[in-house]
Specification:
There is one protein chain. Helix 1 runs antiparallel to helix 3 and helix 4 runs antiparallel to helix 5. By secondary structure, this protein is of the alpha+beta class. The chain has three domains: 60 residues; 86 residues; 53 residues. The protein has five helices and five strands.
Amino acid sequence: MNTYSKFTANVFLAKTEKEYQKGDTITVTTKYGKENESIVYNLIYSKDGYNYYSIIRADGFNVQERAKLKAERYGNWADSAQDKSNQKYEDSQEGKDFLVLAEPIKVGHHSEKRHRALIERNWARMDKSIELRDKAKEHEKKAEYWAKKANTINLSMPESIEYYEFMLEKATKEHKFLKDNPKMREHSYSLTYANKRKKEAQKNFDLAKRLWG
């Protein structure tokens, strides 16, 4: 049985006992038993009798698609929570015309119990409205986060080769410019940080080529 093995952030390889060629379609099973048809790209390494291949889903489902689904799901939850919050707020306005008169509770009067129950009911509804409103905001933040992730290119995608090649070229130019023009450095660590970004871009580009080249 072919299973998944984490290689680096966002990247899972197919761990197999058999040998495959680039372009082969294989079934890879998750730890929960779900089977995904996948296409083999490159043999990344072999260890302890197993081969580890870079793969993509045969149905085209990837990190971006998963992020889009999460963004949509959290967006729907946010809308639902906000609708419920609005409804609870409307419910909390029960007896508004009477309560706005600020009539004191008539202790011992037959209306006392009903008056207290109305106030308590409306306070509870208002508390629930606020709770649901906060939940809606929380879901909205998560929806925004996943919407941004849906537009992110990372090492799990074959197109990351071109992306990281561009990022490496950009980082290399930035580093050279700061090295050649000391007066343009914003602070004493500008060149160090630029060099770090260049090395990170080189690392990602090399990984992308190894995975998808």
